[in-house]
Amino acid sequence: MFKGELGRIGLGICSDHPEVVYALVEAEKNALVHFSDGGRSFRTVSQGGRVGNRRFYYADSYVDSVWPNRIDDLVTRLAVFDDGGVT
Fold first, then answer.
1. Which of 48, 46, 80, 35 is nearest to 61 (CA)?
2. How far apart are CA 16 and CA 74, in angstroms?
């Protein structure tokens, strides 16, 4: 699934819908992964340079408690996704 060494993995959990989890995975090609069933299965929603550009130093991800498709990804820049991280 992920190529190369795995680095830091940041989790964002929706407080009002705890079955919704996002993981920002540092690997050869960084990825944003979405779990809608509490972690039993997942889908990769975004990969590559747009995702987590320095995750191994410092980062944090937050999922909006009311709107679980809104993700605030804080790395060296702030990225906000209103579509579950797709664009």
1. 80
2. 21
List all residues 6 or more positions away from 17 whose beta carbon is below 8 Å from its beta carbon: 68
- The backbone torsions φ and ψ at residue 77, rounded to the nearest 5 degrees and listed phi first, read -140, 165
Q: Are 6 and 56 in contact (CB under 8 A)?
A: no
Q: Which residues of 39-59 are buried (b: 16+ CB within 10 A; e: fewer)?
A: eeebebbbeeeebbeebeeeb
Q: What is the pLDDT of residues 18-49, one digit of tens each?
A: 999 998 888 888 888 999 998 889 999 888 76
Contact 80, 70 (CB under 8 A): yes
